[in-house]
Write a structure and sequence with these properties.
Elements (H helix, E strand, L loop, with lengths): L2 H20 L3 H5 L9 H10 L5 H10 L4 H15 L2 H10 L14 H14 L10 H13 L5 H4 L3 E5 L5 E3 L3 E5 L1 H8 L14 H8 L1
Parallel strand pairs: 1-3
Antiparallel strand pairs: 1-2
Helix pairs in contact: 1-6, 1-7, 3-5, 3-6, 4-5, 7-8, 8-10
Amino acid sequence: MDDRAVLALTTAERLSLADFFESLSAAEWRADSLCAGWTVHDVAAHLTLSTRTTLGMVVRGAIRARGSFDRMELTFATERAARYSPAELVTQLRGTAASAHRTLGAGIVDPLLDALVHGQDVARPLGRVREMPAEAAVIALEHVLKSKFYGAQKRLRNTRLVATDYPWSGGSGALELRGSLADLILTATGRPAGLAALYGSALPSVTSALT
């Protein structure tokens, strides 16, 4: 798939997320997400940053975070969440939904993956269901499996993934992990919440790697 097609999928997912966030109550905005230490408000703020992050921001943020990427991202998100209201963040997310701007070091698929995964991060703790478009999910999952950044190659070593809600499989090995594309993506990106509905011979080793 070419870059324009991937960007179109990313745009659609961002707009869908804006609609989702707009539907939330004040209490839901304050709720915890699947990301430890992040509220739903923080995740929304983070999602507006992928089209706004500059090289200078990253350099200064990395210095403040003493080289910790996770600490830097949390600081960026919480500071932005403190600065902007839910309504303002929804407007920002919609306003740059079609932007091709990417965070330093990110590839064309990373913003799509970010939107898909963070959509689950906020929906699941709230007991809400966000359907993950299959075409977008397959592209994102195949990217995760190839990338060294997300750690999937280590936690899914010797494991073949098989989707149960779409004709797709990926990875290789003697062990097998089966489940929905959404749960496979959450697990591949290091989120234990994806494990509950998965099954297969690889489940014990993958669970051990994530918990």
